Amino acid sequence: MIDPRELMPGDCLLYAPSGVFGRAIAWMTSGGVSHVEVYKGVGVSYASRDGLGTNEYPLRTENLCRVLRSRTALNMGRMGVAFEAMRGQPYDWKGILNTALGGAGDSSPKGNVCSAAATIWYRVAGLVRLFGAEEPEHITPRDFEKSDYFWQVWSE
Fold first, then answer.
1. Residue 6's CB: how many other CB atoms inside 10 A?
2. CB 112 within 8 Å of CB 46
3. I want to staple 34 with a disulfide (CB 3.0 to 4.6 A). Which of 17, 18, 39, 85 is the partner?
């Protein structure tokens, strides 16, 4: 288990699947991860959690399988502003369902999934070209571990 004192603001937290829903996401995306959060610092992460929506949450280490760090300095102030604009938005079950059924991942206008939210926050914080021109709702948790914008600092 990682020592939380080793984490830095902006670290990308990737989680292994838990439960049927998490395993389905990992299977749909051909990866061993099903959830992504952004570490804010002081034991808190920014996330859009299923069933709960977009908010700040206490750091969760259960099922944490990788920690990635940006190769570029991030503007956490700008990320915080973007997060506040999204705080309280519901989890986007419709977008997940559309993606699972082979659709375009057409998200509802006021909902987020974890990877779309994290993509927006990282782009605003300085990783403007993260995932190129791909729309945030088409990004999966697994895409983060394949990105050249991050390097792995911890793995279980």
1. 10
2. no
3. 17
Q: What is the per-residue DSSP string for 12-60?
A: EEEE---HHHHHHHHHHTTSS--EEEEEEETTEEEEEETTTEEEEEE--
57-84 exposure pattern, b = at least 16 Cβ within 10 A, e = fewer: bebeeebbbbbbbbeeebebeebbebbe
DSSP SS3 for 119: helix
pLDDT band at 8 (very low <50, low <70, confident <90, very high): very high
User: Which tens digit of pLDDT belongs to each residue from 96-151?
Assistant: 776 566 555 454 556 889 999 999 999 999 999 999 999 998 898 999 999 999 99
pTM score, two decimals?
0.91
CB atoms within 10 A of CB 119: 24
Which residues on neighbouring strands pair with residue 19, listed in sequence order? none
Torsion of CA 101, 46, 64, 145, to 10 degrees: 60
pLDDT in tens, 65-97: 999 999 999 999 999 999 999 999 999 887 777
- Give the three-class secondary structure for 155: strand
